[in-house]
Hints:
Elements: H1 5-13, H2 22-26, H3 33-40, H4 45-58, H5 62-68, H6 74-77, H7 89-102, E1 118-122, H8 126-137, E2 141-145, H9 164-177, E3 181-183, H10 191-194, E4 200-203, E5 207-210, E6 222-223, H11 226-229, E7 240-244, H12 247-258, E8 263-267, H13 279-287, E9 291-293, E10 296-304, E11 307-317, E12 330-331, E13 338-341, E14 344-347, E15 351-353
Helix pairs in contact: 3-4, 3-7, 4-7, 5-7, 5-9
Amino acid sequence: MYLTDAQLMSEIRRCEYCATKPCKTACPCDCSPADFMMAASGGTKSDFQRAAGIILASNPLGGICGDVCPDHHCVAACSREKFDTAIQIPAVQATIIKKAREMGADPEFILPETNGIKIAIIGGGPAGIGAAVSLRQLGYSPEIFDADELGGQAALIPDGRLDRGMLMADLMWVSDVFQIVHHKQSIAEPKTLLEQGYTAVVVAGGLNDPIRLNIPGDEKAIYGMEILKQPGCFLFKGKRVALVGGAIAADQALTIAKAGAAHVEMITLETFAEMPLTEKEKEILIENGVLFSHRSRVAEIVNEAEHTVGIKMRKVILPRGESFHPSRIHDEEGSSEQFRPFDLVIIAVGNRPAFRIEGPGIY
């Protein structure tokens, strides 16, 4: 997950420090890998402090991001890809943050005086934390409302993909440095916060409402993120488990495989290459015995006497020359349904926002 000192410096020295910085352009947070690698190249405590400062100024959860960021942003844009292999930018980023903390070289940020305007933020995940940091840097007084601990769905990522120590260190650092106020309270209606004296409400509650397939028998399927929130409440040992979905289902598949399931299989519309996972994430799934059925969809969940006994599957195709999108997939002409025995079916094809943003002062 992290690079050794030799590996880190080897990767940093490979950077061409391109004038156009394509890695920075490709980053959704506008973070500049070229700049933070140049800053860390000397290897001293102050170098790592400066490099960590560059990362965290653009991305206050820079350590978490380094651990789990997909490789289709900065890595895909890396100029080295054109003549050997791309730099392991996420690993470099995570390692720089980790080393800076180990050296006691956390960067310091000077915050402006508050302007007295209170902004309520619903949701304590990465989006809510990012909003709070940005507002505090502008002089506002943001307050987060979330019944759970800070971290949101980032806290649900299995330990095999996200180091728990990095997760907690990032959350503690950002809460302390940016003076984040967290109310462990669930909010049903955003407008009630305006009535409590907040000037505005930022809704950053994440995607928590699972998309349903609405197929026969899906009333017995498990929807949502409860498996990741409370894995100990489910009995998977010795069972055959089917997971319908790609990226969202991957973390649940890993959790179930580690819980001792006899058979764990992901059923996806995508091919293996099309799955929105990094090569490292795919390797982790394979290492833990997760199997895959690609270009397949579940047509029915078969239940008998209130218990799931299997699924009916159909093969699907993507027209030649088309890039993958679920809307472009259709059933393979002439194919028939296939029954597969399973004890549990988890559907994780995506989530929608639980809130509707309505009314003035709500964003």
